[in-house]
């Protein structure tokens, strides 16, 4: 029964990919509009593809080095599973492919969205949203396809152990392909974030503040690079990020389920616990598709009307997945199925609460952003101060929501028994799966944002009518809010996924010790067989407690990593933006007739500067995130690594929420002024909020989102290198 249900997983993945292809083909049949609109779209498309080609060259070199390292560890020293080098490559490949396909769709959709907005607001929304849905469906489709592919392969080839140990071996091996996805995602997020914000800051500071020309004005040399950046950062980067969270949550939960029932010696129930997260994700795809078809709006819709249009789809999918989850768990007859179902519901509710809190603090429809815009009446300094304060306050609700989610999901899955650690941790993992179960539609609402933004830019540069620009502005403003909500959702899911990965690390320690030939662990006078050792036993064996200097040292290093990583990426944006500012000023100075519209700027030069800056600046922060967990493990051993992951998770989560919400609020405060409030465009208040938006750009689009991946990548590196950590450490 359980084996036959598994085939729902690859079937759902294929349905998602087929529907993504259908939406892509339907979008391509729409007109791009005037020759000028098509020309601008082609510039953006060429710039985006050129950037990705360069990025993939650098990522390929990093992947080659890591594959050689893993091959030496697996085949030379036997410290790793022999499948790890190949699994690592497939994880990176599918993560990159998801970002590439989503971005390709987005670059074709923007001009078509602008052209559809010439006829109605609903037509523009439909094209932009369904094109965004391509990203959502490709991510979940490729993610589940990769998981089901590896599950089938490993079932065929892993056969030299008992049935219980075989399932643990399969799930922990599958978990390692998450490192490939994490590594690719970090390069995509950091590189894309540096690219987009270097262009955006350059375009804003010289174009809007110094030259006084509107956003997306064709006279601004950096405007094409700015539009390219929206695609490489917010589509390719976000897609790779959530692909990694999606796969990581499913795989970590399956590994925790396998470990929980290994201790109980129940092979049948172990298989059901491994299958449950995969089946919930598979059904979530089908229900996301229903939600996608329910998104539509009316003409002359307000901002709240547009938000409600998207909410109808996401809320419907969420409501349906609740019922479907209980049905799946009941069919499986998993132990304690009703309460484990409650853990999934908790994960969904945490995602909704974080999304709503983010919307409240970042949308110009609500008081906090309106007050932030009002602070611009006393200059840019008060805008910065108010934005930082708003961002800090906005961390409270998401943190409390995640804390409540951790406690409740653990409590439910453990059967209200806090000493039942194995099942409690399984509950936290399955809560993360619940939060991400409707990723097909939640990612669609996020990928919609940069498409709408590019559509607005295209309408401005093509000098379409005021009514069309008003419609694209409405779609763009909605996109800013959905993008901020999506970032909050990505951060929340990273917190729960990171916690599940932290728990899975202990299972990798068990396998690492087994591979070294160890059969027992000694705790005081008591010798415990490794395959019978519980989570608590391993904590005692490695002396993992809050008074351990190794654990405390690791926690401080983990917290430091969050701030160091943010500082490096913020400075990278500053340096790259400085080159862009110099180039835009040079073109205004040397190419006569740009500001009067008589000469065309050299757009390609600005695209080249952003591309080169991003490639140069992304390598060091990304490599640092891989090296630090390895060095920590070699010096402080398992206790140090656990401390590192705890410190990085706690500090990184709060810092990421702060940066994403502060940046989103600064952006929408500027938009609120541009709607005609407090003097409107060109006023001193507007100039003050433009400065705030410029400061917020790297907050919300580079450093903040990259922290999600830092949290998960450090966990994934620790998991993959667990064999080395248990075999040797300095202390």
Structure overview:
The chain has helices at residues 2-6, 8-29, 35-76, 84-116, 121-157, 163-210, 223-264, 267-292, 303-332, 337-362, 367-374, 380-393, 396-413, 421-436, 439-461, 466-515, 535-541, 549-590, 603-674, 684-720, 722-727, and strands spanning 520-523, 526-529. A hairpin with a 2-residue loop joins strand 1 (520-523) and strand 2 (526-529). The protein has a two-stranded antiparallel ribbon. Helix 6 (163-210) packs parallel to helix 8, helix 9 (303-332) runs antiparallel to helix 10 and helix 18 (549-590) crosses helix 19 (603-674). With 731 residues, it is mainly alpha-helical. 83% of the residues lie in helices and 1% in strands. It has 21 helices and 2 strands. The two termini are 49 Å apart.
Short description:
With 731 residues, the chain is mostly helical. Helices cover 83% and strands 1% of the residues. It has helices spanning 2-6, 8-29, 35-76, 84-116, 121-157, 163-210, 223-264, 267-292, 303-332, 337-362, 367-374, 380-393, 396-413, 421-436, 439-461, 466-515, 535-541, 549-590, 603-674, 684-720, 722-727, and strands spanning 520-523, 526-529.
- Global geometry: globular
Low-pLDDT parts are none
How many angstroms does the end-to-end distance come to? 49 Å
The largest sheet, given as strand count, sense and whether it forms a barrel, is: 2 strands, antiparallel
The arrangement of helices and strands along the chain is: HHHHHHHHHHHHHHHHEEHHHHH
- Biggest sheet strand order reads 1-2
By secondary-structure content and strand pairing, the structural class works out as mainly alpha
Overall helicity: over 70%
